[in-house]
Every structure is written in C-alpha cells, then in structure tokens.
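does this look right to u?? guanosine-5'-monophosphate version
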Amino acid sequence: MSGKGHLFILSGPAGAGKGTLRKILFKEMPDLVYSVSCTTRLRRPGEVEGKDYYFVGKNDFVNMIQEDAFLEWAEVHGNYYGTRRSDVETCLDLNYDMVLEIDVQGSRMVKLAMPQAVRIFITVHSMDELENRLEDRGTETPDQMLLRLRNAAREMLYAGECEHTILNDDLDRSSKELIDLVWKYRNQSAGL
Ligand code: 5GP
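got this back:
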C-alpha cells in the first residue's frame, strides 16, 4: 500500500450511530476525506447537496451504473446508493486517507476491489436498542423504520467478516475507540 492513502469503511445497521461517530472522527482528524455518495433517496431536512450526498434521479443513477462510474453501488432500504470510483481513486492516489460510510453490500464490493480497505463495523447490544434510536432520530416513517430494522438483523451478521467491530454503547468510549483505531493505521504507515 505504499504511496497510497488508507481507505476506512464504516458499516453497520441503521441507528447504530455510524454518522455520529464519523462526525466525531472528522472533528479529531479534519484531514480525512469523506466520500460523498450518490443517492436516489429524497433529501432530508438539513441535508446539504454535495456534503451529505449527491442527490440524483433514478435515470441518472442508472446511466452512471452503465458508465461504470461506481466503485460500488447497492439498493438499500428501497433506494440506490453508490460511491463514485473516480472520487476514491483520485483521493487515494493523492495519498489522502478516506472514509466511506456505506452499507454491508457495498462494503463487501469495495473490499473485493481494494483488499487493503479496513472495514469497521459499528454495532449495538440489541435490536431493541436500534429500534429506540431510530424512534428517537425520527427521520423515518413507520414503514421505513420497519424496513431498516428488518435489514438490520441481516446486516448484523456481517460484523464477523470485518477487520474491526466497535460496540457503540457509550459514545465517549466508542468514539475514542474509533479514533485510536484510525490513528493506529495512520501512524503505522507513517512509521511512528
Ligand atoms: P441513509 O439513507 O440513512 O443516509 O443511508 C442508508 C444506508 O445507506 C446506510 O447504511 C448508509 O451507510 C448506506 N449508504 C450510504 N451511502 C452509500 C453508498 O454509497 N453505497 C452503499 N452501498 N451504501 C451507502
């Protein structure tokens, strides 16, 4: 992996706190680059085009698939999501370290294409906890919530395939664990 940036993949079920942990990580390490995904999902209040996602129509998304523009893409909870290949390749070639926050299917695809990728699975103690967190978040309709919870049970099984798992039971502790882990990889290749 010499001369190349690190690629970290955060995955885990909806409600496990991937987004919150990622934001804390970026505060600590602002030189990391976040891979902004394309999605056909509708924009939620407060989300910013080009920062949270590139919001695209389904036809445009399909065209991008046909043009092989995605390093990975997947249908998640009824919408399409994808990581632009050029974003990742450019960033790693320039020696920047990058973070992808993507679902389990996408994580598998990236690992096949880029075996050096470090997969970090964010999990919680129980499905009840996920349900409570999704309820508190309040961004999903009851139907969407049910779909996310159903998918969560399947996604949890992926933890065993990942290089690392972080149990997000206490935000202070789990964010420290994530920061320490990312530092470990970055320092190793810096020879520190
Ligand atoms: P949300 O709609 O809550 O923003 O994201 C739903 C799920 O899609 C999350 O698990 C999120 O990590 C995943 N996701 C976001 N971007 C991508 C992407 O580019 N590719 C894949 N495969 N999943 C993504």
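Residues 14, 37, 41, 72, 74, 76-77, 81-83, 101-103, 105-106 surround guanosine-5'-monophosphate (CB under 6 Å). idk if thats expected tbh
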